[in-house]
Every structure is written in structure tokens, then in C-alpha cells.
Amino acid sequence: MIKLESHRSTSSGSNINSSGLLKLYDPNTCSELVFEPIPNAPGQEPWGFWKDTQNPSFEGWPQIDGIIFLNASRHDLAKKICTEIRDCKWAHALAYALSDSDNYALQFPRFEIALEIAENYLLNPDKTLDVSGTMEALNYGRVCQYFQLRPNTPSFFSGLGLLNNFLNPSNLFVDLCCGIGHFSSILEEMGIQGVCVDFVFSKLWISRKARLVQSFQMIAADLESGEMFPFSTSCGSASFFCHDAFYFFKNKQKIIDRISSNFCRGSQILIGHAHLSDQEHGIVSGYPLTREEYHSLFSDDTNLQIGPDLELANDFLDSIDSSLQYLSTNEAIYIVQSSTKNFPPVPTLGLLKEAFFVASPFAGENSAHELSMQWPDDLFRKEFDLATKRTSMDSPKLPSDGPMYLSGSIDLRVMQPSFFSTVANLPIKWGVVGMGWVANDFMIPSFQYSPQSSLQAIIDSDPQAFAEFTGDFGEKIECRSSLEDLEDPSGLDAIYISTPNDQHLRIIEQASSLGINILCEKPICTNLKDLHKAVSFCKEAGVRLKSAYNQRYHPAHQLIKTLLAKKELGQVTQIRIHYACWLSEDWSRSSVNWRIDRQAAGGGASIDLIPHGLDLCSFLLRTSFQSITLERQNLVHSYSQKESAVDDGAIAQFKTRCGILGTVQCGYNCPDPLPRRQLEIIGTEGRIYALNTLGQDAGGHLKVTTLHGSKEIDFPNDHIYSPFVRQLDKVSREWLKPGKPSLVDETEIETMAMFLKALQKS
């Protein structure tokens, strides 16, 4: 059995060997385990293993990137990791740890995916993780949604209330089942020392690398195993906190006994959201107990308080705004145990002093501009419906400005600024240039559902565009004819360009000179000379330039990418895309359809649609192109027969650098009733066929056929989490990360340059 002994230290270092927060002991030999660092390990965090010098047969517990892997139920895995560390195979050691999961996971992460993440990180040690993308790649499933949206859930308020009212800030804070450290990050900012413990190594690693929790010691351990670590009486006082997870433990008595048996005076157990078996609890029950059974877990000589989460949530919310009402069912309880006869005088932590509210990411509106909730799935809706009620008027109007102060199932989001800026991100301020069809119908509405993004201005040279503006953002949206006319153009963080193609270069030059990052509709420019100018402007100004390829953010395409990375089709050999529509000459809200104007568009169907297909192929296959050729047709529409003709159909053929062949077929001459949006990928062991996934919405159908059988997946037309919303969230998160991400995607620019060369030759 391994025993962890807590040892208080004033050191702020994260290295366990130097900070002294914890010491490892082997009780069998009563000797201290000595940490043996590995020379030339990557990064600044220590790598190595904890070795008992008096027990040479003991293999040791690995320390990976500063995180101790002490999961006694994964002893064979720990041994394998140690072997890789000794052989200096850093990526493999990290990948083995990342590919582990808990017993509730529907499927474990694929080692190949974990290895790709490890290699990418080790090659870029200063790179900040994309939390959501990393969790999705590691097959977190619905847990990914849970971590992303947890600060929006009612139970989170009771957790904050529990800490605010009962936590002794002088104790060592031990966050059991910490996940990615939502609560630890808040306390860390307040200068409290702590330890994060979770069964799953990747949760801890993601938290550390995303800079959510930086100084707390992190340990991956199985709390229910026979070798679960107890804290010694020599450790001083500690506060053990377990929120929204305690009900998962099958043997709760074992957990309580091993913690409380070694309590020092002033220590605490704080358990939040512990489900009762006689109450309807919603999503996941775990192993709930009755109130009487919870009482029986604790000895009679300790100070014990058991109460409903409702009390904590009410107290927490009322201290912010007495007008807020928070109604909850009594489906969950909190538990506070202290080793002292009376609860020690605990000063209120003041979590609320720096807390603030933002609009719920679930909040939408109906046709009457009344507030309605748009849940990511039915399970989230059920949790909120069970735990809360809306207490404001039945159909409240959306506020015209300021944060949304709403309660109950209309959701409150409470978080400290430091954490919010890391996880949910303080909104990036956007301007939209060009009020055409795509901007007005798809991109601008996306700002209502992206908590990372805030629309500040819309810009269009045509005053009529503002009159036709269908968005409802209130008076805070500044409407101007040009960037220079804005009251403070430098106050924008980014712009989205959706003008005719021939205007892109001029706007890119203006925005880059103002220090504004740029998300531009494809193509960035219509010829090679202008493309190079645009890239040069942005690099010289130090601003980011990215093409608005929304197709890579469709949930079906993201799933396809995961399946391909997992080698579900074996070796991919071919890919085919058909992306078409019917575009008549008179299709336009304005008097001029610029898409069929050679000067304004630079081409027709080819330049409009094929770049989307090429980018999607590169995204799915995770490769660049070796060659691209293009054939165009001028066949059906009258505008294709004129002197200034643009093509109404085209086919691009390509070969990737890894030898995959593909075609992207597009057209303005495909009638609406026909299947116009198809994607097919063929491999040595299977085939993927996607229907109606290409386009502006999130709907469509996917069929995956392999040597082991076939499955079909329908994607509903989710108008809230559309590809545009997902794109906006992803870009905003990337541009708000600490450090300096790449200004220009060189692969993206290379692909566009190859396409423009092929277009010129065709």
C-alpha cells in the first residue's frame, strides 16, 4: 500500500520534489520514496518515478509532466509508463497515461489518438491546449459537454456556496474527483494551497496544460482501490472536497473511514451534491443512499451537518442579488464533517466579490423575441427542469444591453474572471464587414449563441443593408459604412469579412493596419499576387488571418475525422465530394448577384464552392496536397455564356502528399430536388458516406460501413449549434489563448495558392 503524507510548505513551486506539498511513503518498508528525475526530459515539469531505494523490487510510480500516476488499479499500466520513461520515449509514456479512462467511459481513448496529442504537445511545449478539442479527441463523449457547461448547471452554485460558507482557507485543500479543476482554479487564485486528485490522468493533464490549475499538486489515483492513500495525522489540517461525484463511489464507507480516521484537529470533509436514493435525481444516479444511510457513514463524536443543496444555492445567489430566486427540488444534499466539536470559525471566502454574470449559452429567442432555452440535448434540459424553475415572468424579453440577469432554468453563470477567461473565455469583440446572405442569415445570428464572441459592429457601404438587418442586438451594435468610420476601430479584436471577393484585399489591409485579427470568407483573394499581399500585410502587422471554412466544424465531419484517425476504414485511398446548388441569375437580395460577376467574384461555381471541398478534404485526411488540377464548364445558365462569363460547374482533381486521390465536384446547375451535397471516403477496410452534411446547418445523415458491419447516424438540423457557431467559438478560443498562436495557417495558404494556380490554368 502506498501512503501519501501531506506536508505544508510556503513554497509556491509546482515541482512536488521541491514544493514539499506531499511526500510518498511505502508503509511496507516504512521508508520514504525518493523521486528520481530523468535527465533531458521535455519541458519544465519534472519527469521520472518515485523509487523506494530500500526495496529494489518496487518498480516505482511514474511522474509524467509533473503529475504523479498513482493509480493502484492500473499497476500494469504504471509499469509500462515507467519503462517508456526509462527509455526516454516521452510521447509514448504520455500517450499511455492519456489513453487511460475510468470505468464509466463508454470506450477508452485510442492510443493512436493519444500519441498524436502527446507528440503535438511535446513538439510545442508552450502550446496551450484546446480543452474542448482535446476532450473530444480522447473520447470523453458527453463528459466533454459536462465539463464545458458545468459552470452553467444548478449544482455548480451549491458547490460554490459550500466552499464559500464552510471551507477553512488555512487548511490544505484536497479536491477529490476534481475533473479539470473548476473549483480548484478558483481557490488557487485566492492563494489557497491544494492537491487535485482524479482517477483519470488526462483530466489532470488537460487542466494543467490549459493553464486552468497551475500550482496545485496533481495525482491520478483510484480512491476506491485497496491501496487508496490515507492522510496521516502528521499532515496538519486538511479540507477534503468532493462535489458532484461522491455518489459514484460504490463503497462510500471506505472513503469516509480512510479520510476521517487520520484527521487532525480542524480538518473537514465537504461533500456536495450527494444524491438521495429516495429522490428523483435526473441524469446519473451512481450509488445513492438515503439520508439515514448518509448519517450512518460518520461517527457520533464528530460534528456533522447534512442539508439540501437548495440552502447553499439560495445563500450564494441571494448574496449577489436579493431579487434573484432560486427554486430547487430536494434531490441532492450537502454534507459537512468536522473533527472539532463545534465548527471552527470560518471566514466567508468572498467568492462573490469577483464573481459576475454573463448570458447563458443556452439562451435563445423565439419569433416574438421572447426568451427561450435551447438545450444541447434532452438530458441537459431534464437536469435543469428537475433542479430549477424559472421565476421571472413567463415570457421575458431579451435585454437590449448588459449581462442577462436571469434565474432558474434560464440560467445564471457565475465564475471568477480568471477562470472564466481561461475556460469560457471573455468575449472577443467582433465586427462584421459585409451584410450579405451568409453574414445576415448565418454568421451574425451565431453571435447570440457563442459565449466567447461579442458582436460590436456591422459595416456595409450600402445603407439598405442595415435596414434589412434581421438581428436583434439592441443599440449596442454600431452600424457604419467603413472600418474608419467606427468610433474606435482599434477597440475591435477581430472582424469577419463577407464582402464580394474583390474587396477582401482592401479590407484586410485596413484591418491589419489597425491591429485587428481577420476571419475572411473564401477565397481570401482571387489571384496569387493579392493573396501574397494579404499574407504580408497580416504578418507585418502581427495580426491573425484565417479563412472562414465552416465545413470543418460540422459535427458529422468532426466525427468522420475521429473515425479516420482511429483507422476505422483502414488506409484511406479515395475521397469524393459533390457540393452543388442551383443559382439563377436573379438570385439575390440586391439588384446585383455579385457571385456571377467575374470582376467581383473572380469566377463562378469553382471559386465559390471548391475551396470548401478542398479544405474539408485536408481537414479530414490531416494532410496537404501534392497536386490540384481543375476543369470548368459553362453550360447551363445564361450568365455562363456571356463575354464576361463565369463557370456554372467545375471538377477539381487532386492527390495528397500521402498518395490519396480525390475529386471535388461543384455546380450552380444542380436542381434543388436532386442530392446535391454528398461526401464519400473509401478505405481498405470500409466506406463512409455522408448525405446533406455539406452546407450551412448542422443536419444530415452518415453511414459507416466496415468489414465488421455498418451503422447509420442522423444529425438533426441544430439551428443553435450550427457550423457557424462552432467555428466562431473555436476561432475565438484560439485567438484568446495565452501566448501567441500562429498568425497565418501556412497549410491553408498553400492550398489556396495551389487552387488559384489551377484556376488560372483552367
Question: How is this structure best described in words?
Answer:
With 762 residues, the protein is of the alpha/beta class. Among the domains are: 154-177 and 223-353, Rossmann fold (3-Layer(aba) Sandwich), CATH 3.40.50; 425-548, Rossmann fold; 551-719, Dihydrodipicolinate Reductase, domain 2, CATH 3.30.360. The protein is 30% helix and 22% strand. The protein has 23 helices and 32 strands. The protein has an eleven-stranded mixed β-sheet, sandwiched between helices. It has an eight-stranded mixed β-sheet with strand order 26-27-28-25-29-30-31-32. Strands 21-20-19-22-23-24 form a six-stranded parallel β-sheet. Helix 17 links the parallel strand 22 (494-497) and strand 23. Helix 2 packs antiparallel against helix 3 and helix 7 crosses helix 12. The longest helix has 17 residues, at 605-621. The N and C termini lie far apart (72 Å). The relative contact order is 0.07. The model is unreliable at 1-21, 321-330, 352-371 and 386-425 (pLDDT under 50).
Could you write a compact summary of the structure shown?
The chain is α/β, with parallel strands linked by helices and 762 residues long. It is elongated, with a radius of gyration of 28 Å.
